[in-house]
Amino acid sequence: MKWEKLSNILKEIYQEQNILEYFIEDEKYLKNAFEVTETLWMKQYEKIANLKIVMISEAPLFGKEQTYIYNPNTPTTVFFHFKDLEAFFAQKESLEKPKTVEEQKNILYDIFSKNGFLTLDIFPFALNPKHTKLHYRNISKKLYQKLLQTTTREYLIPKLELCLKKSDKDTHFVYRYKRLFDKTESHFEKVLNELSVQVYQISSIHGTNMSLNREKLRRLLQGNNDD
Does residue 227 form part of some domain? Predict the structure, then answer.
């Protein structure tokens, strides 16, 4: 996947928004974030034989700490807590959390790969309010949609095609947050339907506030799609 084409898209956006003076510094950060996260994502993808769950998210938080679910050096976040792994067990049971981040992440990745669980970001840009002039919370609905539309061919479609290679009729595509489903206005579903003859059931596994609905994730992993 070529960063240059994505960079050109971003530059046009910055120019249109009259903030081109911030582009060089922002692009440097975003390119690094992209290259790091893409490498880590592909490493996890290659461990999985068949996908059961593809969890749709917006974009990596990244930032100075390089926060990312597949970064073995950064702690888990509200996006996916270590205790959320309890959803991967048939019976409710408490999972003891190791002391080190490395141990936690190793367990996380092992359970993910064995259960065919993978995250999929819709956007390629790790926009972050501390590092970039634009971020997903401060842009207009119109600009949000434009970013979504203009990066689809260069980013979302290639990533989704990789996921479809390891998917079948029992694979579930789920949104981590309901607000992402609302903001993207069924864009993901439209792209998915264009790429696949298989009709997939798409839902959300959001819980209350920022939590993840472990019970629903457990049911999906067990092949039960009933809400």
Answer: no
